[in-house]
Design goal:
By secondary structure, the chain is α+β, with helices and mostly antiparallel strands. It has a single domain, classed as YefM-like fold, CATH 3.40.1620. Helix content is about 40%, strand content about 20%. A three-stranded mixed sheet has the order 1-2-3. The longest helix has 10 residues.
Length: about 70
């Protein structure tokens, strides 16, 4: 489903419920800017989706620790 950002802002609860069952692509001025997806049923965690893209010696904990240390 594709929804513009104004509609998301005006009726967020509705789209939050819909996101539990489907991916929602959010647009601004006709260009895609974000995705809203439910947690259940996504299948893969972010780290699993990045496997093969990131160097083999990088793990999720290391990246998280590095990001948190910059706060």
């Amino acid at each position: 489903m594709i929804v513009n950002s104004t509609d998301i802002q005006n009726d967020f609860g509705k789209y939050l419920d819909l996101a539990a069952g489907q991916e929602i692509l959010i647009t601004r001025n006709g260009a895609a800017v974000a995705r809203l997806i439910g947690i259940k049923g996504t299948g893969k965690s972010l780290s699993e989706q990045l496997r093969g893209i990131l160097p083999a010696d990088v793990d999720e904990k290391t990246v998280k620790d590095e990001r948190m240390s910059g706060l």
